[in-house]
Amino acid sequence: MAKRIVVTGVAGFVASNLARHLLDRGYLVIGIDNLSAGTLENVDPRVEFHRADICDPSIRTLLTGADAVFHLAAKSSLTDCLEKPLEAARINVLGTLNLLEASRQLKIGKFIYADTSAEYEGITEFPTREDKIKPIGVYAASKHGGAAFCDSYRELYGMNITIMRYFNVYGPAQDWRRVIPPVMSSFIIRMLRGERPVIYGSGEKRRDFIYVDDVNDLHMAVLENPKSNGRVFNAGTGTNFSVNEVYRMIEELLGTGLKPIYKPDLPGEAQITLADTTAARELGWSPKVEIRDGLLRTIQYIQERVLKAA
Ligand SMILES: NC(=O)c1ccc[n+]([C@@H]2O[C@H](COP(=O)([O-])OP(=O)(O)OC[C@H]3O[C@@H](n4cnc5c(N)ncnc54)[C@H](O)[C@@H]3O)[C@@H](O)[C@H]2O)c1
After folding, report:
1. Is 211 a catalytic residue?
2. Which of 8, 67, 284, 296 is 20 to 30 A away from residue 84, measured at CA?
3. Per residue in 163-187, pLDDT tens?
4. Residues lining ligand 1, Cβ inside 6 A
5. Which CATH number fits domain 4-169+210-235: 3.40.50.300, 2.40.10.120, 3.40.50.970, 3.40.50.720?
């Protein structure tokens, strides 16, 4: 019988891609989202979709009979978290705890938590391994609160919990509706519309960008390989690019002649992110998608799905 996998945040960027990936591999997907940030058009019609809030204790009924939970629902916009810290903590900490508690009661076999490279904001060793963290911003602290309860439930109750720390994931269905959208989608959309891209700060911040299909391959390795049980994995490529370099790559592909506008830096962001990928590679995983190829696929998606719909 096909395995039943619960995916929270299924109407969002990463989880909607994950759901499709699971369905294509024969899993049944029960998708949960309250549509506060995600949209139904992201949700594959094969998903058994439930509009529900992860903070609601009655969510337990939706987890009944599941073999595994991928918990990706979160308040994920850094600016939203800064503006509404209590709300960020409610969703990212208490929402996670609510799902952990339901999973404990139901004896769910595997719980996978979507953590963030923002856990490393105060760490200056590169590439960064999984064993030291220093979250600083509200988003990072709230995601860390969720991760701390994962650690607690693993130790207290012996639950099978794996943590994945995503670096900068990019690709189709990225949330471009935000006030400050993720950098690649923002550049591509503005430049395709004939508008100058906006860079916050000098553009010299470096980010480890990972294409969403590579993250999905790691999701599968984590789900299917028992060697992942109880461990933490960086989901990055081990290579980074500056924001200015990303702008230049996109400009090379689009040839718009549009120069960036530089605006004051956003507070609390790390200067550099770079994943040590040793742990993930031990599962037999490696990233496959080169950044130019990933950018081309993202451009194609935006041309077909975002700009035509606008
Ligand atoms: N995208 C990245 O580069 C990245 C990097 C590091 C970590 N992450 C983590 O990965 C996960 C997915 O990120 P994303 O970029 O796809 O974000 P996203 O905002 O696109 O998706 C999050 C989804 O969660 C839903 N949601 C929010 N609050 C909810 C609630 N109370 N109940 C139910 N659903 C709720 C939203 O509607 C949205 O669809 C998040 O946990 C995020 O912290 C993402």
Report:
1. no
2. 8
3. 999 999 999 998 888 777 899 999 9
4. 9, 11-15, 32-38, 53-55, 72-76, 91, 95, 114, 116, 143, 166, 168-169, 175
5. 3.40.50.720
